[in-house]
Amino acid sequence: MMEPFIGQIMMFGGNFAPRGWAFCDGQLMSIQQYTPLYAIIGTIYGGDGRTTFKLPDLRGRSPVHAGTGAGPGLATVAIGQIGGAPTHTLTVDEMPAHNHTMHGELATADKQTPQGNMLALTPGTPIYATPIPADDRTMAQSSIGNSGGSQPFDLHSPYLGLNFIIALEGIFPSRN
């Protein structure tokens, strides 16, 4: 392999960081000890900028190219910006338009309460009544009403865990 650029990040299949490399795990680094790397990444990923700076933390994250999104609906992402979430719970506003079907039966009604029963219409009888607030009945939740458990769901694509490492030494990259 050719000598890396200082600050170059690559995936590595081992469970250790090779000599001259460090895991991209957000660790604090000494500016005095790693001055060339600090000159390249500064405090983009954290640190106090006087004695320390941080390496990027890619644990549990997918890297994306920084810059303006090149397509409809793609966001602008600043270098070092963190975004996204591992799970999400849908709100009513995020759900697609839909309806809940109410079931009934064209048969002689033989029950007085809605709980555990189905709406029935005796043929030839009126089906509407003047509302009487004191006599209002609630149907069983399974008939019509709220559904779902408001549980968060996983947003991860299928993945394979690998280590990201950053070059601590190597060629200092020129700007042009």
Automatic annotation (TrEMBL):
Do you know which InterPro entries this protein is assigned to?
Phage_tail_collar_dom (IPR011083), Phage_tail_collar_dom_sf (IPR037053)
Q: Which residues form the Phage tail collar domain?
A: 7-63
Q: Name one Pfam family in it.
A: Collar
SUPFAM superfamilies referenced in this protein's UniProt entry, alphabetically: Receptor-binding domain of short tail fibre protein gp12 (SSF88874)
Q: Which organism is it from?
A: Sphingomonas suaedae
Which protein is depicted?
Answer: Phage tail protein
Domain of life of the source: Bacteria
